[in-house]
Design a protein that fits this description.
The complex is a heterodimer of chains A (199) and B (171). Chain A is mainly beta and 199 residues long. Chain A has helices at 2-22, 117-120; strands at residues 38-41, 46-48, 61-64, 72-79, 83-89, 93-97, 100-111, 125-126, 133-137, 162-174, 183-195. The chains are: A mainly beta (199), B mainly beta (171).
C-alpha cells in the first residue's frame, strides 16, 4: 500500500510537467511524420532589384518579372505523393531607416511538374497578387488520370520517393520616393513550407 | 495486470507523448532571403557641357566644314560625372538638323564623337552611335569630344543653331 502511494505521487508530478510541454506542441501530422521536407534558397539567395536595374534613383519603379533572371529561386524537396503549403511573408517596404522606405509588392510562383530548374520557370504557376500562401502537390499529377492510391505509410527501411518543386519570388519595388536618401534598402522575406494536413 | 505495471505504463505513455515534435523529423521547413536595392542619389549621374562646338564659315574648305572630335580645339566637350568605376553606355543621334535662327532653311550636321576616361582629347577613341560599353574613371568621370561634318554649299545666309543630345545609361 505504501509502495502504491509512492508511484501515484510520481505520476502526478510527471503529469504536471507534461501539461506544460504539451501546450507548445501540435501532434497532428499522423503518418507523414517520417518524411523530411527540405527548403533551399538557390543561387545568391536574394532578390536584388539592382540585378534588374543597376542604377536605382528617385522616381523609379523597378519590376522583376517571373521571366527575368533576377528572380529569387528556391527548391522544395519532399515526399512526391504529398501536398505542401507554401507561405511567403514579405515586408511591404524595403527600408534604409525608419524615415526612408520604398514600397514593395511581392509575388511568387511555383513549378511542380518535375522539371529541371532551368526549364521549371517557363512552366511555373503564378499565385495571384494578394495571396501569401499556396497549397499544391509537390509533383503535379498527370491530367486525365485517376487519383493515385494513398501513399505508402512510413515504416522501417522504407524511403518514400521524393520530388523537387521550384519556387520563384519576384515583384515590384517603387515608386522610389523623390526624397529617398541614397543607400542600401533591404527587407527580409520569410518562406515556410509544410506538408498540408487539411485540418 | 498489476496496478504497479499499469501506473508504469501510463507514465511511459506520457513521456513518449511529450517528446518534442521538431526533434522527431522536419515536416516543415523555412528559409529567409534578403530583398534589397541600392538607391543612388540623382546627383550621382550628371552630364555636363564643358564647351560648346563653335563653327563659322571661315573654316569651310570647298563648302564643307569638318571639325575633328579628336584634334580640333573647336570641338565641343562634355563630361559625365557618376559612380566611380561603373560601366555605362551612351546613345545619340549621329545626324541632327540645325536650323537658321534669323532666316529660312536648315542644315544637317553629321556628328563625330570621341571619348576617353581622362581629359585628354588627343588620346580619345571614336564612339559610334551603336551601344558601346564605356567605363568611368576612379573619380567617376568620363569625357566626350564632339565634332562633325557639315556641307554649307547650299546654305542660306544666317546663324544656325542646334542641339546634340547624348543619353547615358548605367549597365
Amino acid at each position: 500500500m505504501n509502495k502504491s502511494r509512492r508511484y501515484l505521487l510520481g505520476f502526478l508530478i510527471l503529469a504536471l510537467m507534461q501539461a506544460v510541454q504539451a501546450y507548445a506542441q501540435r501532434i497532428s501530422f499522423g503518418t507523414y511524420a517520417t518524411d523530411d521536407i527540405v527548403l533551399t534558397a538557390l543561387g545568391t539567395g536574394e532578390l536584388n532589384f539592382n540585378n534588374k536595374q543597376p542604377v536605382i534613383k528617385s522616381g523609379d519603379v523597378i519590376t522583376i518579372n517571373l521571366t527575368d533572371n533576377s528572380t529569387a529561386v528556391l527548391s522544395v524537396t519532399g515526399n512526391r505523393h504529398l501536398d505542401v503549403t507554401l507561405t511567403v511573408e514579405a515586408p511591404t517596404v524595403l527600408e534604409l531607416d525608419a524615415s526612408n522606405t520604398i514600397p514593395l509588392v511581392l509575388r511568387f510562383a511555383y513549378s511542380n511538374q518535375g522539371l529541371a530548374e532551368s526549364s521549371a520557370k517557363a512552366a511555373a504557376v503564378e499565385v495571384p497578387l494578394g495571396f501569401n500562401s499556396a497549397t499544391f502537390p509537390l509533383q503535379r499529377r498527370a491530367p486525365g488520370t485517376p487519383p493515385p492510391p494513398p501513399p505508402t505509410p512510413g515504416h522501417g527501411g522504407y524511403t518514400a520517393p521524393t520530388a523537387t518543386a521550384y519556387v520563384f519570388i519576384y515583384g515590384t519595388l517603387g515608386t522610389v520616393p523623390g526624397n529617398a536618401a541614397a543607400g542600401l534598402y533591404s527587407g527580409q522575406i520569410n518562406i515556410r513550407v509544410e506538408y498540408s494536413t487539411y485540418d | 495486470m498489476s496496478k504497479k505495471i499499469q501506473i508504469l505504463l501510463i507514465v511511459f505513455m506520457l513521456l513518449a507523448a511529450g517528446r518534442p515534435v521538431e526533434a522527431a523529423s522536419p515536416t516543415s521547413a523555412s528559409v529567409s532571403i534578403q530583398a534589397s536595392a541600392t538607391v543612388m542619389d540623382k546627383s550621382e549621374i550628371e552630364l555636363i557641357t564643358v564647351k560648346n562646338m563653335e563653327i563659322n564659315a571661315s573654316m569651310a574648305e570647298e563648302g564643307r566644314i569638318y571639325i575633328s572630335a579628336q584634334r580640333n580645339p573647336h570641338a565641343g566637350m562634355m563630361m559625365i560625372k557618376g559612380k566611380a568605376g561603373s560601366s555605362f553606355r551612351i546613345s545619340f543621334l549621329p545626324v541632327a538638323e540645325i536650323t537658321n535662327t534669323v532666316g529660312k532653311g536648315s542644315l544637317f550636321f553629321q556628328y563625330e564623337v570621341y571619348g576617353y576616361e581622362n581629359d585628354n582629347q588627343g588620346a580619345s577613341e571614336p564612339i559610334d552611335a551603336a551601344e558601346r560599353i564605356l567605363k568611368m574613371n576612379k573619380e567617376g568621370l568620363y569625357y566626350f569630344w564632339i565634332g562633325g561634318r557639315i556641307d554649307i554649299r547650299k546654305a542660306r545666309p544666317g546663324s544656325y543653331s542646334g542641339e546634340f543630345t547624348i543619353e547615358v545609361e548605367y549597365i
